[in-house]
Amino acid sequence: MEHVVRNAWYVLGWTAEIGTGPFARRVLDEPVVAFRRRDGRLAALLDRCAHRLVPLSLGSVVDDTLQCGYHGLRYDDTGACVHVPGQANIPPAARVRSFPVTERYGAAWIWMGDPEQADPGLIPAIERYGAPGWTVIWGAPQHHRSHYLNIVENLQDPAHTTYVHPGTIGNPASSDIAPVIEESEGHIVTYRWTLDAEPPPIDRKNANFSGLADRCQYYHFFPPCTSRVDVVTMQAGQEHTEANMDRGLRAFSYKFLTPETDTATHFFWLHVRNFGVGDQELDERLMRDMGRTFEEDNVIVSAMQREQDATGVRQLAWLRIDAGPSRARRMIEKMAAADAAAAPATSTAS
Amino acid sequence: MEHVVRNAWYVLGWTAEIGTGPFARRVLDEPVVAFRRRDGRLAALLDRCAHRLVPLSLGSVVDDTLQCGYHGLRYDDTGACVHVPGQANIPPAARVRSFPVTERYGAAWIWMGDPEQADPGLIPAIERYGAPGWTVIWGAPQHHRSHYLNIVENLQDPAHTTYVHPGTIGNPASSDIAPVIEESEGHIVTYRWTLDAEPPPIDRKNANFSGLADRCQYYHFFPPCTSRVDVVTMQAGQEHTEANMDRGLRAFSYKFLTPETDTATHFFWLHVRNFGVGDQELDERLMRDMGRTFEEDNVIVSAMQREQDATGVRQLAWLRIDAGPSRARRMIEKMAAADAAAAPATSTAS
Amino acid sequence: MEHVVRNAWYVLGWTAEIGTGPFARRVLDEPVVAFRRRDGRLAALLDRCAHRLVPLSLGSVVDDTLQCGYHGLRYDDTGACVHVPGQANIPPAARVRSFPVTERYGAAWIWMGDPEQADPGLIPAIERYGAPGWTVIWGAPQHHRSHYLNIVENLQDPAHTTYVHPGTIGNPASSDIAPVIEESEGHIVTYRWTLDAEPPPIDRKNANFSGLADRCQYYHFFPPCTSRVDVVTMQAGQEHTEANMDRGLRAFSYKFLTPETDTATHFFWLHVRNFGVGDQELDERLMRDMGRTFEEDNVIVSAMQREQDATGVRQLAWLRIDAGPSRARRMIEKMAAADAAAAPATSTAS
């Protein structure tokens, strides 16, 4: 895969997706299968039996092992084969790769690179997760048919919302305000404040603003795979202190990108907010509206990918609004180059 | 693309297909988008934004410009970008190709080659279009999964109708009469008269012949893309003068081929006739029956294309009935070679 | 195609599949069309007209010939063109390959190799076919998306049934009993007896066993394409004579593999049994249950093929249970190599 960072945590799936049986998903162009042991811990293996290459996800979970659905070979959480029906000895080749996997924030996180470096402390922190007065929703996983860097650029790009999402988060009033960009080690943020403006339709639904609003959007990016958009819509005319922002409508909208192939990406989103806590109808509306919003992005980035594939070109003209997206992209390309230099790709067969 | 003539007018679509929004169709393996300005005139651009390559057809028409659905860049009818949100200057690279396009005969015609040569006078004339006593129907556009030259050959080939269209225009009586072929500069015609024969089923439906009929079919071809079949079914025993032919059932059946890729072709057909004028039921029947007839051809040419692709061979044995089709093919191949020599293909990315 | 034996009889289809019109199926990566003459005999030709390559299966059967659906060329059972509309002479190139084809056991058998060697005596004999007290069912043809050698291995592999078919023919009790393998010229058999065991669910349905049963499975293989599984479930404690076996539940389950491409195989199965003769409900149940069982194999071998294609690897670790499948495979690979050396592949275009 191109421009991919193997030494990083990626969302393999939501906890709620993973039941009692094997759970399969392709990550960084490798087939992965996860299964849960009796003590509740997850294990993740290469989804390909070391015997005849049948996906282990067609098998079943037996006594804390994953049993192949073809001949019953059983693999433990380290990928070692621990049982071969019909023979006592285990051939040395009967082993599959295992991947560090851990659960946090309602998600299973997988590390596709060097297991030695798989520090759970590197899992991105989620703001206000579990704090009183805040609530969380996990969006239905989406499948975007585009290289993840196109999606990274989209996520660092406030300028597109006016055109791609006119019915929800887009706001015509914001289209001429240039964003501010700040970069530091492993972090980039693009933000802009819109002052004394009509709140966008979606905020109008969620709160009763008496008049105009100040609104900010902070597009944080933590390379290679985590986007956090902080959105505040607050009564216009107040000072922009943390306390005043918390009295407005405030949300932290996370997206976690998990590259599937060079032209497809698993798109996970999760939303933490301080309004309508316990309001199930609002939960459902946000699930639907935000899901639809991100599918609008999917239409754009998928069409873009098709044209990039057809032409072999990524971009032709450069605009001012490209500054943030380009910085994020360069930051990741640099990380990916260092990652590739440090850990050469392993064979996909083993 | 192979054997394609860029300096020619092609039907991009029927006028009735093009509404108020952008209209997209692939022509000569390039993505094209058309839009209508407030004065009613059409514009046609490459369907690929000069910024991030997103298809412009995902955007919208705003003030006589086409606005990209991603970041709101606006292009005028010349392909020049005239507005970039968030900045005053327009980068020189922000420009897409535009194509000459004009409307006539209820169709939008596009010129994919050198714009300097796009003389509207070269649009094929349609016989009796708008003349009193004649009426026109426009068939639903079809998509034939074959290189257009296979379809050209089919259209210059009276011999196939007996076998491909037994239920409509085919006539067993005609199958042993060799056609006459005449060729001149930019025109080829294959024709045959069938004398004192039973009229085919479709004519029996459209008129009350008391007995036998004389029937002629002229298969005109105007390379590279226009076929006109003149069909007369007249009472047997009369002299074949123009006046007598007009007293029979007479129709001019046009097909306009628009190559989409090397293995697919947009197939437009249009039918001018002097019988049943104002008869809406007949219009509907012809729409249905002729559409079905050409889909019968589609089945054949698409299957032929698959076998040609599988074998790398176009034809194995040569028959007498191939004379007309082969001449049309050679005529076009010669045109295509001259066209390619005069105007080297432009990059597909710009 | 890889590892394919051309000089062999393959099932083209069941007799019941072939009606009055042309019947098309791809065999050994060649398009084949069969048609029935008025005397009832079948003919089989390459499904590609020698004129413009249109599949002859789009045409029709006329007077013991196959008439092309494009221009009416007619081919007899030898593949010679015997009629070209519009001309008296037949061009020498107007000829398609014909294949020996014969019907037996309710199946049409085709020979894709050297016609001189097509001895009908080489068609596999079907045990007890038509004998009193025995009945036959023909399964609905299946399409397995895997190279046929993967399926051969599966068919010579008793070990998989426990895991792939737990609901039908699988039997947990049998999983630790090593099979016996015997090989002779053009034949390999793997078998095992399970003694004093609970009969599997499917046998419980078909007979009233008072207690435990002895059960044997013989996995015969007649390379390159025929598998016969003999299954007996008999009251435990009796001597295993032919007569005693016939008093139990006994069946001969045939599978005939017809390679379609390098990654797909037509899978035909046929079942001869000595119980429930005339019981239509049982016929229907077996049709459904056995069909479902073989589709369970299809899921496995198709997934395996996808992983083999993705990795370029067939197998990684080797187990004791691979002995039988590997022998069958090597036997076929040897046959295929000899076959390829004797008869170089003909052009696919003619």
From TrEMBL, chains A, B, C:
Which top-rank group of organisms is this from?
A: Bacteria
Q: Where is the Rieske domain?
A: 9-110
Q: Which GO terms describe its biological process?
A: methylation
Q: Name one GO molecular function term.
A: methyltransferase activity
Transmembrane feature ranges: none
Q: Which UniProt keywords apply?
A: 2Fe-2S, Iron, Iron-sulfur, Metal-binding, Methyltransferase, Monooxygenase, Oxidoreductase, Transferase
Gene3D superfamilies in the record: Naphthalene 1,2-dioxygenase Alpha Subunit, Chain A, domain 1, Rieske [2Fe-2S] iron-sulphur domain
Which InterPro entries does the entry mention? Cholesterol_7-desaturase, Rieske_2Fe-2S, Rieske_2Fe-2S_sf, VanA_C_cat
Question: What name does UniProt use for this protein?
Answer: Vanillate O-demethylase monooxygenase subunit
Record organism: Pigmentiphaga kullae
